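testing teh design pipeline on a random one, pls ignore if ur not involved
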């Protein structure tokens, strides 16, 4: 090989090496840009949240001297008629707060008719048994989010064997709807761990009116937290939980399937733990909805439950009263005077 050929070959090899280095650097930069995208997206979400919140006023609050009185309790109240329609336009004089035969004057009253902002935690079961139900869940929650007050901040959490935070609190509802589309069914059911994590996140929410919406189709089988711990946390933080259980709470403990000459037994996939959900929702107000599997009614029961929850948390009345220290909160009721035909639901809420 001549000296000229050697030099040409050396130049060619050097050019190839430089080209490979450029490709590698470009690839690395591309990967860095790709990995940074969620963070940038989240930063944009947070910035959007702050911008919107600057335009949103916090709801009127009771006077400080009233709110800090020992025994002061405030309730989010919804009133419906016999047909399930929300009743608006009621006045302070129309309500009474009572415990058995003892009544207490309404010290604070406000009708929530201007779309006052809420902090809402959406907590969705994505364990393996949710596979056929997720399309209905995604559609219904997408509709819920799209129709929220623009100032409502929403946190999205999925859970299977453990909780997964898909989006921290944000007023970017389009981003929330996009993340709802990331649900993927797999694994077991850490119901209590997820609810506890969501309650802890709600403690840092910007708005005092806080709600947790919990959706599941099964029974807890993977949590480190216990039902008692989660109930205590919900009660301490005064966060109403609205739970939708999909399935049959009375299903047998196991099912049998015949495959050729063999019979295989396993857990019933449509058995929902209604008792545990009712314990969670009773802790600080709220409500449990038990609906049929989405394959049985086309998802109508689930969609109706979500619609009812949306109406309940977004409208109604705020009512406060000073209760004696020995009042049993579980026995305290709010009623409309001389209207036994109306259904009144009162959820205890945090006032700070």
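output:
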């Amino acid at each position: 090989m001549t000296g000229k050929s050697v030099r040409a070959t050396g130049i060619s090899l050097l050019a190839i090496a430089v080209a490979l280095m450029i490709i590698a650097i470009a690839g690395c930069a591309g990967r860095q840009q790709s990995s940074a995208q969620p963070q940038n997206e989240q930063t944009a979400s947070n910035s959007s949240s702050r911008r919107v919140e600057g335009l949103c006023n916090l709801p009127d609050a009771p006077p400080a001297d009233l709110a800090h009185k020992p025994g002061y309790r405030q309730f989010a109240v919804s009133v419906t008629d016999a047909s399930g329609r929300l009743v608006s336009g009621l006045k302070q004089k129309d309500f009474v707060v009572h415990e058995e035969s003892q009544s207490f004057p309404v010290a604070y009253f406000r009708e929530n008719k201007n779309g006052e902002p809420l902090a809402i935690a959406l907590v969705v079961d994505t364990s393996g048994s949710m596979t056929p139900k997720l399309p209905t869940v995604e559609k219904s929650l997408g509709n819920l989010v799209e129709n929220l007050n623009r100032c409502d901040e929403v946190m999205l959490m999925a859970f299977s064997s453990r909780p997964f935070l898909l989006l921290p609190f944000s007023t970017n509802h389009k981003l929330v709807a996009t993340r709802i589309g990331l649900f993927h069914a797999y694994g077991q059911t850490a119901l209590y761990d997820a609810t506890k994590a969501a309650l802890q996140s709600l403690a840092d929410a910007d708005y005092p009116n806080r709600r947790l919406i919990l959706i599941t189709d099964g029974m807890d089988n993977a949590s480190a937290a216990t039902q008692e711990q989660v109930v205590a946390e919900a009660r301490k933080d005064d966060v109403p939980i609205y739970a939708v259980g999909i399935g049959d709470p009375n299903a047998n403990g196991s099912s049998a399937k015949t495959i050729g000459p063999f019979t295989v037994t396993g857990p019933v996939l449509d058995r929902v733990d209604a008792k545990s959900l009712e314990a969670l929702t009773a802790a600080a107000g709220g409500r449990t909805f038990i609906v049929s599997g989405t394959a049985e009614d086309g998802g109508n029961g689930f969609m109706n439950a979500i619609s009812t929850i949306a109406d309940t948390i977004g409208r109604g009345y705020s009512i406060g009263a000073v209760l004696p220290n020995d009042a049993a909160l579980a026995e305290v009721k709010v009623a409309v005077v001389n209207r036994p035909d109306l259904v009144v639901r009162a959820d205890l809420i945090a006032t700070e």
